[in-house]
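Researcher: I've got a protein sequence and the SMILES for zinc ion. Could you write out the 3D structure of the bound complex as structure tokens? I'd like something to compare against our soaking experiments later this week.
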Amino acid sequence: MVPPYATVLVQDALPKTLKRRTLYVVQEDGFEEQAAMICPCGCKATLQMNLLTDERPCWRVTQHGDGTASLHPSVWRKKDCKSHFWFRRGRVKWC
Ligand SMILES: [Zn+2]
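Model: Sure. Here is the predicted complex with zinc ion in place.
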């Protein structure tokens, strides 16, 4: 079985190059600011999900005891590859 996505917490800014199969959570001043990953469809786009509750759209990241994470709600790219998937416990579930 393919291992789940790793979860990486970074301070202030995303690294210049993102690794595949990794969910990045950017924290700034103790707040979760955004989550990011390389699009799982293979198009190589960087997907960025806002985590700040006063901006829309807004996602919530849940970190689990096994090191994986989940995103809520689903991720839906309205342009380009139009990927639409749920990210649960480090795994991509296509819609
Ligand atoms: Zn894509």
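Model: The CA atoms of residues 7 and 23 lie 5 Å apart. The first strand starts at residue 6 and ends at 11.
Researcher: Great, I'll pass this along to the crystallography team.
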